[in-house]
Design a protein that fits this description.
Layout (H helix, E strand, L loop, with lengths): L2 H8 L6 E6 L1 E9 L5 E2 L6 E2 L2 E10 H10 L4 E9 L2 H11 L9 E4 L6 E7 L7 E2 L3 E3 L7 H14 L5 E6 L11 H13 L4 E6 L10 E5 H7 L9 H15 L3 E4 L5 E4 L5 E4 L13 H14 L4 H16 L10 H7 L5
Parallel strand pairs: 1-6, 1-11, 2-8, 6-7, 11-12, 12-13, 13-14
Antiparallel strand pairs: 2-5, 3-4, 8-9, 8-10, 14-15, 15-16
Length: 342
């Protein structure tokens, strides 16, 4: 990619309108000073003294954070938080992001706010060390009025957006934002706007999703094609991704950790992008969400498949080198790391 082409693509980002539907959670970090360790007089257990608490939007919120870092002009989160303190924090963090409009992110007393509470031990001269995470999730089916409201939001936005990105973070079906009813609405949306980029990522499974573009790992790719094992070699991944893309008529993207990314298009095109070399200690949390955000923004701005893969892979490399947080990559950071063609 030349610098001129990079600037052509990224200069379109402020004009884009992208919606993100899915499980928005609160990432709450508890920063612990081990030099202030105590022992409880009552229980005899070790006490971790928290010296700082910080929060940011996670899961679907991480995708949104990355889109905001890229300078996407209008961002529409579609989802919900609970009527609780965590929900207040989550909405506050979303509101801080440039370009975000919260008309379709609502508060409901019917659900808890999905929360990842992450205790981090901060020792001088060492990377942050995460202790056992404390999660707050919903374990019952999402009430139908909530799913109906999500569907209504997608219908009201579909004519005015350049892309819809889907992020399902829950492990149990129908307990989050992406319920069976919401999947039916996404299927109807794709029929009404066949040219709209709809890119989905699911922690649980993409098997039940309609014909949308998908991002997954190699194991998920194998399962979607009915196999018991993930394709192993790069050539096998490329062949499987191309097969799935042509079968569904949509893009397929496969993350391969230290082996990079594979992308396949509905017309038979398939590309492999090797991962960039490591530049120090890494934390892989959030890399996949950075890939989703950069693919969504780049394709919406007219990038080709190889160009979108290059931007996404570069963003992932930037994010994994940010320790103790779920990071993002800006256009300036991408520009600084890319080796442009002459």
């Amino acid at each position: 990619m030349t610098r001129q082409r990079f600037e052509e693509i990224t200069s379109s980002y402020p004009r884009l309108r992208i919606a993100v539907v899915g499980d928005f959670c609160l990432d709450r970090y508890l920063e612990i000073d081990p030099s202030r360790a105590e022992r409880s007089l009552e229980t005899g257990l070790a006490v971790h003294n928290v010296i700082h608490v910080r929060s940011q939007a996670g899961a679907a919120g991480t995708v949104l954070n990355n889109l905001a870092a890229l300078g996407v002009g209008s961002l529409f989160p579609i989802g919900f938080g609970g009527d609780d303190g965590e929900g207040f924090e989550l909405r506050r963090e979303l509101a801080r992001l440039p370009g975000v409009r919260l008309d379709h992110f609502f508060v409901t007393p019917l659900r808890h706010t999905f929360t990842y509470c992450k205790p981090l031990v901060l020792e001088a001269g060492a990377p942050p060390r995460e202790l056992n995470r404390l999660d707050t999730k919903n374990w019952t089916a999402t009430p139908s009025p909530i799913a109906d409201r999500v569907c209504q939001s997608m219908r009201s936005l579909e004519a005015d957006i350049d892309a819809l990105l889907i992020m399902e973070q829950v492990d149990l079906p129908d307990t989050g934002v992406i319920t069976t009813a919401v999947l039916r609405e996404i299927e109807a949306l794709v029929r009404r706007r066949p040219g709209l980029l709809v890119l989905a990522d699911s922690r649980r499974s993409l098997r039940e999703y309609p014909a949308v573009s998908m991002k997954m790992n190699a194991g998920e790719l194998g399962m979607l094609l009915g196999g018991d094992q993930a394709p192993e070699s790069i050539d096998e991944v490329k062949e499987a991704a191309a097969q799935l893309a042509q079968r569904r008529g949509r893009y397929v993207f496969v993350t391969l950790a230290e082996r990079g990314l594979v992308g396949a298009g509905p017309g038979g095109e398939v590309e492999h992008l090797p991962a960039l070399p490591l530049r120090g200690p890494i934390d892989i949390v959030g890399a996949g969400d950075a890939v989703s955000a950069n693919i969504g923004a780049a394709l919406s701005a007219g990038a080709s498949l190889p160009e979108a893969l290059l931007l996404a892979g570069t963003a992932a490399s930037i994010v994994i080198h940010q320790l103790g947080t779920t990071g993002t990559a800006s256009v300036a950071q991408l520009c600084g790391l890319l080796a442009f063609d002459r």
